[in-house]
Amino acid sequence: MPKPSKRFDAVPPYLFAEVARAKREAVARGIDVIDLGIGDPDIPTPQPIIDALCKAANEPKTHRYDESAMGWVPFLNAASEWYAKTFGVETDPTKDVCQVIGSKEGLAHLAWAYVDPGDVCIVPNPGYTVYQVNAVMAGGEFYPTPLREENAYLPVLADIPTEIAKRTKLFYVCYPHNPTAGVATIEFYQDAVKFCRDHDIVLVNDMAYATVTYDGFKHPTALQVPGAKDVAVEFHSLSKMFNMTGWRIGFAIGNPDAVASLQRMKSNIDSKQFPAVAEAGALALRSVDNSSTMEIYQKRRDYLCDGLREIGWDVPKPKATLFVWARVPRPDMTSAEFCAALIERTGIVCVPGNGAGSEGEGYVRMSLTLLGDKAGERYAEAARRIKESGLVTALV
Questions:
Q1: Is the torsion defined by CA of 90, 96, 100, 104 positive or negative?
Q2: Is the dihedral angle over the CA atoms 355, 150, 368, 171 positive or is it negative?
Q3: Closest C-alpha among 100, 148, 101 to residue 124
């Protein structure tokens, strides 16, 4: 049997496979596990979206290949309308938007469309591993730019070496940020757009959590910067906005050349999403209000963060995303050791920060999506278990 490619040797095990293994072992020991690992919405997809899927699936036109240029046309139109309504930016759905099978797929294949040997992708550290993995798989390199608490988890553009910038094709940013829950400012986007224009780079803005926000906070976008469409493309996903992770539907929007290049690559790889899913996605973007889900996430956030603060663990409340990001509350443990101790002593699963990059060492990520929780009671239980475990009080 031939060996996989040498490029494949550079691909690490997917982080959540390791988390799932630890969870299985805890369950096998009979532990009542509270799984704060992967950020997969536990609340069902809103019923109107399901009804739209059922209706569309009964229409013969959805049973064939979608032979459109950029994706199911009603979905592209809805995406452009949603973007204008949500962020105040007009786009052309025939040129500036293409459909993706979840933003993960689009973010990966954009690298394949642009990267040659010797080219660089600038990626966040810590960050979603899909960016760097596909830079390498496409034959290129990646440059990890540190995201640190003292810089509000924003990259310091002045610290990126000029020789790296000259070789860079794609600059991946993700805000609201996974895993740190950091948020961007319009001023940051202005600087990033200028940086990319100066160095002839595509700014790739991953906005999977664009509207997963709390306390009335509204996140800006790169395309709100005048002239940003000259260099920027954004990825938006219905997964987190509308509890649709399994549906695999999203879109890229922005620079028409980048969008066209992505679609050209995709046309040789996939045959688009089942059109009935795209039809249901169009309804979601046009008419579904999912604010009730965000209210549940916010309540869970408050139970968890307030409960942990009461026992001396200084856990910031995120403005956005499905995650709470916190320093490990002990100097004698690494991120992985603390997560292992949590599972062992409390049955709580969370993710070690270094799984998303070296700059994540010393932090842990806890998800606000917990199957079985109704109104935050399991998050209150998690805080109680951590208090009783002594893992935090033993700090001092």
A1: negative
A2: negative
A3: 148
Residues of the chain with pLDDT under 70: 13-19, 393-396
Choose the final residue of a domain: 251, 267, 287.
287
Beta bridge partners of 122: 143, 171
Q: What are the structure tokens assigned to 382, written together?
A: 């998690």
For residue 19, give its domain range. Answer: 7-45+290-395
The tokens describing 105, both together, are 């797929």
Supply the DSSP symbol for 348.
E
> Residue type at 336?
A
**pLDDT tens-digit map of 143-190:** 999 999 999 999 999 999 999 999 999 999 999 999 999 999 999 999
Radius of gyration of the chain (CA): 21
Name residue 318's amino acid.
P
Q: Are residues 12 and 51 in the same domain?
A: no
Cis peptide bond upstream of 126, omega within 30:
yes
Tokens of 158: 């002045």
309 within 8 A of 92, measured Cβ to Cβ: no
| Partners of residue 235 on adjacent β-strands | 206, 252
Give a yes or no: residue 266 inside a domain. yes
Q: 27 and 107 share a domain?
A: no
> What integer pLDDT is reported at residue 394 of this predicted model?
47
Compute the distance between CA of residue 242 and CA of residue 245 in angstroms, rounded to an integer: 8
Q: What pTM value is reported for the model?
A: 0.95
Task: Please give the structure tokens belonging to residue 54.
Answer: 């059922």
